[in-house]
Design goal:
This protein is of the alpha/beta class and about 600 residues long. It contains 16 helices and 35 strands.
């Protein structure tokens, strides 16, 4: 019978539970949130079926396929909406659509009501959206293998999709190949703890004071390569967690401490693959760059068997695809041949603390990247080189850089972290010593693609005014050339981090202006929260009201945002629109005055 002495020997596939004729195997979860089989010895009849199907014990005998070196294709679904809703390029959807339309059953992973993950088998086309996209935590496969076997034996066509360990478990369970079965496995680096993922979501729900209603890993709106974790909340708020700031990714991808122990010694790497087709991300180097790569996600399809090749040839009409080299696939996906490196934190301490403390506090204190003194010096030299380039070696901006960052009492940054003000030629600063500039990211004034442009960029901050610059993906904020920024006494301007404004941005702040992460601002955009102290003889008239612009908003050329306006996450304000009232999330507004013209939109920067 199955007896797990060392946790690295169990991948958590659940297949032993499905094969047991006496139902004497249950799965109990440990302190880390991973389940392991436990056998009721009073019921066990020592049939040893659980050992015979265990993928960890029998992997080598199944390591065979038609193609030792797979045939590789980079692919994108032709439907942009499907690509947006996919983890990579929509290859899974392209392969599955026709299969399900003709009555085929598909087995794959879906979120549960509490944002756990389980394997299901379905032939309902409406379930395709649930099956689409990677989930990145271990899925519960209890009953999965039995369902597939019953369908196959009744003559139904089945496509099984899962991790390599699960698909090896399926082959062991079935004992033979079926003509009516196609197996697809996924390129897998590791699986994360469902328990820790739930604690991560609990942290976000506390932060946004609302329940999670939607999750999308590798969301495309900020660009696929930012690895953005998008989370929507019941109150309409949106969280965009890019790789460099998201605490779950910090723990899982940087510190490597959220994965199952078996992932550090994964037995399912290498070639030939166990599945008919393998799917994953097509990450490329500069030398291997594909014409399909537009930062909206590109899939790699590896064909491993004759059956897989026949299926791909019959179901590739929904793709744009091209042959790519096996070498390029390997270079972008080291997880195909290498196990996850060991965690860089004390694992026992991490999981003991996570039960007693808030997720974010444990991650912030334990999952910290250390920088050597030598690397720190190199980083500082890079900062000064950057200013030399931006200043075009003009004396005035070089002096401004030194004065603002190291002398002026209003500026509070960090040389170690690179949170500095970078200056360009033809910048005019009028910053009172009793103003306050808080930098949690870099801030560039007068950014321009025209090296010889003499257009002036101006910033004026009165005593008692405040500016806060956040950090997104390692980037702070940049004001394009020709911008005019004025913050009056008592006014607060906050940018949570993201791309630069375009040229000739005007910001006039007397009360409060907040610009969310990754908000794109076009040319000649005006944002002003006040009416210039002019009084109008109207009962209840207020001269200045705060402006709150959400996350990932697009303010197109020439639009004007007036006082008291709130713009929801993911919305687009069209060119030359006059916005004098608030708008919800994920809409397009246009006109003077602006009105909603489209709803439920998403867009990529």
């Amino acid at each position: 019978m199955i007896d797990i002495k060392n946790k690295v020997d169990c991948c958590g596939c659940n297949v032993c539970g499905d094969i047991c004729p006496k139902n004497c195997i249950t799965f109990n979860t440990d302190i880390e949130g991973f389940w392991y089989p436990e056998v009721d010895e009073d019921k066990c009849i020592d049939c040893h079926l659980c050992e015979k199907v265990c993928p960890n014990l029998n992997v080598e005998k199944l390591k065979k396929n038609n193609f030792v070196v797979p045939k590789c294709f980079a692919a994108n679904h032709k439907n942009l909406e499907i690509r947006f809703d996919s983890t990579s390029g929509g290859a899974f959807t392209g392969l599955v659509e026709n299969f399900m339309r003709h009555g085929g059953y598909v087995g794959g992973a879906v979120y549960t009501d509490n944002w756990g993950v389980q394997q299901i088998v379905t032939n309902k086309l409406e379930d395709l959206a649930r099956l689409r996209s990677s989930k990145y935590i271990q899925s519960d496969a209890n009953g999965f293998y039995n369902q597939i076997k019953i369908l196959l034996n009744s003559g139904e066509k089945v496509m099984a999709v899962g991790l390599p360990c699960q698909m090896v478990a399926l082959r062991n369970f079935l004992k033979k190949d079926y003509d009516n079965l196609l197996i697809i496995d996924l390129i897998c680096r590791y699986v994360n703890s469902p328990k820790i993922y739930r604690k991560y979501l609990d942290y976000l729900e506390r932060k946004y004071d609302s329940k999670v209603v939607y999750i999308k890993a590798k969301n495309k709106e900020l660009g696929w390569k930012n690895l953005t974790h998008k989370v929507l909340f019941k109150n309409g708020s949106t969280y965009y967690g890019t790789f460099s700031i998201d605490k779950f990714m910090k723990a899982s991808m940087v510190s490597n401490c959220l994965s199952r122990p078996s992932c550090y010694e994964c037995k399912f790497k290498g070639f030939p693959r166990y599945a008919d087709i393998s799917l994953g991300d097509y990450w490329t180097s500069a030398n291997d760059k594909s014409d399909l790569d537009d930062n909206t996600g590109t899939s790699i399809i590896m064909v491993n068997s004759n059956k897989g090749e026949a299926f791909f040839n019959a179901n590739n009409k929904k793709f744009r695809y091209e042959d790519v080299s096996f070498k390029s696939v390997l270079s972008g996906n080291p997880a195909l041949t290498k196990s996850l490196p060991r965690e860089s934190v004390d694992r026992k301490t991490f999981y003991n603390r996570i039960d007693k403390e808030n997720f974010e506090d444990v991650v912030d204190s334990m999952c910290v990247s250390s920088v050597s003194k030598k690397q720190l010096i190199k980083n500082i030299i890079k900062l000064f080189k950057k200013e030399l380039i931006l200043s075009q070696l003009h004396i005035k901006p070089l002096w401004q850089f030194v004065y603002l960052n190291f002398i002026h009492p209003a500026v509070h940054g960090s040389l170690k972290d690179g949170f500095l003000i970078f200056t360009t030629p033809y910048c005019l600063f009028q910053i009172d010593k009793k103003a306050d500039i808080q930098l949690q990211g870099e801030l560039i004034f007068g950014q321009s693609v025209f090296k010889r442009s003499k257009v002036e960029t101006r910033i004026r901050m009165q005593a008692g005014s405040k500016m806060e610059i956040g950090n997104l993906g390692g980037n702070g904020y940049a004001f394009g050339y020709g911008s005019d920024i004025e913050i009056f006494t008592g006014g607060t301007f906050i940018s949570k981090g993201g791309p630069s404004t375009n040229s000739f941005t005007t910001i006039i702040c007397q009360n409060k202006i907040v610009i969310g992460q990754c908000t794109a601002i076009g040319r000649n955009v005006t944002i002003r929260d006040n009416n210039g102290h002019h009084q109008i003889s109207i009962n209840g008239y207020i001269d200045a009201l705060p402006i709150i612009i959400g996350e990932h908003v697009w303010l197109c050329q020439g639009c004007t945002i007036m006082s008291g306006v709130r713009i929801g996450d993911g919305s687009i304000i069209s060119a030359n629109a006059l916005v004098n009232r608030s708008f919800p999330a994920h809409i397009v507004a246009a006109g003077n005055p602006a009105k909603i013209t489209l709803e439920n939109i998403s867009w990529k920067m």
